[in-house]
Design goal:
Elements lengths: L1 H17 L6 H39 L17
Length: about 80
């Protein structure tokens, strides 16, 4: 009887020792918030780079005296 109680106590200690405390909601929320903020900054930086490149291309085009060109639509055909 004594050995079975000791065995159960040791088993319980081993099982509880293997458990790790999961972070609480606030900790998870803060981590996700930091991750999303970093991602948003990255997207903003990329967008700003693309806008600056487009503005620079527009300035260069204006200096060369070429108007901005839009793609020419395909001709309309009347297929009967």
């Amino acid at each position: 009887m004594r050995s079975s109680i000791l065995l159960m106590a040791c088993t319980a200690m081993v099982l509880l020792g293997g458990c790790q405390a999961e972070p609480d909601f606030d900790t998870k929320f803060e981590q996700q918030s930091r991750n999303l903020a970093a991602k948003a900054r990255s997207i903003d930086t990329d967008t700003e780079k693309q806008l600056n490149a487009a503005r620079e291309a527009e300035r260069a085009r204006a200096e060369l005296g070429k108007p901005a060109t839009a793609p020419t639509p395909a001709p309309v055909t009347d297929a009967k």
